[in-house]
Amino acid sequence: MTKLYAVYGASGCGRSLMPVARQQLARENDTSEIVFIDDALHEVSEVNGHRAMNYVTFKAQHAEQKFALIAIANSAVREKLALQLEQDGIYLWSVIADNVVLMDQAEIAEGCALSPFVTITSNIKIGKCFHANLYSYVEHDCVIGDYVTFAPGVKCNGNIHIEDHAYIGAGAVIKQGTPDQPLVIGRGAIVGMGAVVTKSVPAGVTVVGNPARILEQK
């Protein structure tokens, strides 16, 4: 069966995930081609040694099965593209680095991107198209929704619930909750770079600082 794989997005996020994707296919002894999809392109070109093309051209490529990793940080765009791929019969592709640590009972939905040195420990449930950048970790008994993004070095401790479309900035630390009262990061909330989150964060707000406080709009 002929397969074609794609990293959707040829910006920094996509270019840093392409080597991870290559390693994964090598690990699986799969010699299929991986291309970049970039909708700004009008003709097929080359990015970092891989063919790059727009989505219309990708759809026209001959392959019995197609898979795409959405390597775009904006979670709303990720959701829109995931729906488009599913409508077009293209599978969401999960890409996991060689040295990612996955422990017991970690349930991760399709379309995830787990960069090098990420750790996912035990009894964790993670939704669609999760991005975990370099050196991030998710500790025990966490529940993470769909289209959540971790920048590099996020420390997500145990008993934390992170709702859909939340963004956790580089180096942020989220304090451990308890089994009967998990700490909650609300839908679409943004946790700023280096923030230390000691209590639940409402949906849609931005928190910054140590301890993290809601950033008031001026």
TrEMBL record:
Domain PglD N-terminal, chain residue ranges per copy: 6-83
Matching InterPro entries: AcTrfase_PglD-like (IPR020019), PglD_N (IPR041561), Trans_hexapeptide_repeat (IPR050179), Trimer_LpxA-like_sf (IPR011004)
Residues annotated as transmembrane: none
Highest rank taxon of the organism: Bacteria
Pfam families for this protein: PglD_N (PF17836)
NCBIfam families attached to this UniProt entry: NeuD_NnaD (TIGR03570)
Stated family: Belongs to the transferase hexapeptide repeat family.
UniProt protein name: NeuD/PglB/VioB family sugar acetyltransferase
